[in-house]
Amino acid sequence: MTAAELVALLTARGQTLGCAESLTGGLLTDAIVQVPGASRVLMGGIVAYDEGRKQTLLGVSAQALERYTAVSAQVACEMALGARRVLAVDYAVSTTGYAGPDGADVGLVYVAYAGPDGVRAREHRFAGDRGEIRRQAVAAALALLAENI
């Protein structure tokens, strides 16, 4: 599903969306904002790059960050749930991962969905440079929304 298709679907249903981003740093929210009429459905996006901001802005628990790390399915789910609550939306999506350029886990990305039917996360292993990994994470977040809305 493209961002335009997502906006059209949510507009037709009268539903709202919010984003919580870490590694994508606003790219996901921007992809949606690029669509004319996005203001009818997109209520906001929160970029919480720092672990402390994940806690204070999105309500991610210190226990999840300590036990699983910021790049985990558990934290991605807590980010999505936090965005849904804070932004008061029908659906929320989150992104967290390692885009590099260094480290053993470069390309490890989690995206999560939160909606009226629950929360779920998906793990991805992307290849490419930092920009490519971030763009793939945006596409994965949109795909997860398409599967669940």
How would you describe this structure to a colleague?
With 149 residues, the protein is an alpha/beta fold. The protein is built from 6 helices and 5 strands; from the N terminus they run H-E-H-E-H-H-H-E-E-E-H. Strand 1, helix 2 and strand 2 form a beta-alpha-beta unit. The chain is globular, with a radius of gyration of 14 Å.
Task: Put the structure in a nutshell.
The chain is an alpha/beta fold. It contains six helices and five strands; from the N terminus they run αβαβαααβββα.
Question: In what order do the strands lie side by side in the largest sheet?
Answer: 2-1-3-4-5
Shape field: globular
Strand content: 15-25%
End-to-end C-alpha gap:
11 Å
Draw up the topology in text.
Blueprint (H helix, E strand, L loop, with lengths): L2 H11 L3 E5 L5 H7 L8 E6 L3 H8 L3 H7 L4 H15 L3 E7 L10 E8 L2 E8 L4 H19 L1
Parallel strand pairs: 1-2, 1-3
Antiparallel strand pairs: 3-4, 4-5
Highlighted features:
149 residues, alpha/beta, 5-stranded mixed β-sheet, 6 helices, 45% helix, 23% strand, globular
